[in-house]
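Lecture 7, part 2: worked example. A protein chain together with 4'-deoxy-4'-aminopyridoxal-5'-phosphate.
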Amino acid sequence: MAALNDVNEQQFERAQRVIPGGVNSPVRAFRSVGGTPRFLVSASGPYVTDADGREYVDLVASWGPAILGHAHPAVVDAVQRAAARGLSFGASTPAETELAEAVIGRVPFVEKLRLVSTGTEATMSAIRLARGFTGRPLLIKFAGHYHGHSDSLLAEAGSGLATLALPGSAGVTEATAAQTIVLPYNDLDAVRAVFEAQGPDIAAVITEAAAANMGVVPPDEGFNAALTDLAHEFGALLILDEVLTGFRVSDAGFWGLDRGYTPDLVTFGKVIGGGMPLAALGGRAELMDFLAPAGPVYQAGTLSGNPVAVAAGLATLANADEAVYDRLDAVADTVSSAVSEALSAAGVAHRVQHAGNLFSVVFGDFERAPRTYAEVQAQEAYRYRAFFHAMLDQGVSLPPSVFEAWFVTAAHDDAAVDRILNALPAAARAAAAA
Ligand code: PMP
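Predicted complex, written out as structure tokens:
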């Protein structure tokens, strides 16, 4: 084991001397699963290769963007051609308009789109816009949902905060935290009660289109629609966060599987940038035109709409056809069923949770599917640590936390899927023995 990880261990030691925790984003540090993070040097299709030259079938997909698989030739080609024309102009480009049109063509309630560089910026700007538009200060979010690391959104957040069991972040003032009301997910009564008590002060409700940063916890049937109605009843906006789900679970995001309601604002990230730093917020024109320079809500970015990132996003969306979504669904179905079978065969109580082609495993004996952060936090998370390492040792890279979704790509061919399936029985036995 030590010999196997030598290069990664050396890299991690070296990184820790100059980078806080040795990583530039916390979940990468393997804190909850233990062991040494792999330092990756290349990726192709469904595979990633570490600094030791070891290849893994990847079920992280850069946390979502790589729906076509890593280094898809059409995306790499588009990026190389854009790079040769200039890395950044800090001026408008025709391709930005093309990308806005491509998104509007897929998600009909979006009439205008503003490009930013990260999901964090997209949600942060959407909230400012909601506050500026309504003239109200408060925000409702759900426990276990992650919307990036801006101050007002770190309360009881999922993703790395769930992994590290942090209720929030040092450095966020009480005044800021007090402007975010955190409620249990899938609990419309709790939302109604807060609206009835404080309605005139609530600018917006922000919700992940399907929660996938506390593991996958889908919204109850009709939840997003009812939530939208409730927000509108009290004059507030509904911000649908599709940073993770957008263009991944369908060509119109999770909304495309759910429809029947009209969010006011939506945020995209990950797939829309095809692996480059690019994200967006969109919505109806009347609202979006509140953004500067058309309106009074300021929002800007030196690298916003970066031409290389836009080229990657356009090429990714252009290649994400029906066959890609069919393959994503089929791979997710095969792998998630096999995980469940292997765990059952090893006697490990569990549930597999789904939101379109996103899925994750909850360990423990649950009578019904967990619907809230409190419920998923009650699971036997220690079993995932053993499961994760048994998979990694057999050349399969899973998200290094039980509180993250598993991401498939359309490049997961039969050989890659077989490698995953072959690794599962031993990993399930390791989870049983944990
Ligand atoms: N919203 C959601 C739903 C996310 O999953 C994430 C990132 N995982 C973000 C926002 C923040 O995006 P970024 O990491 O690009 O800032």
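The pocket of 4'-deoxy-4'-aminopyridoxal-5'-phosphate is lined by residues 63, 118-120, 123, 146-148, 159, 208, 213, 241, 243-244, 269, 279 (CB under 6 Å). The mean pLDDT is 96. Keep this in mind for problem set question 3.
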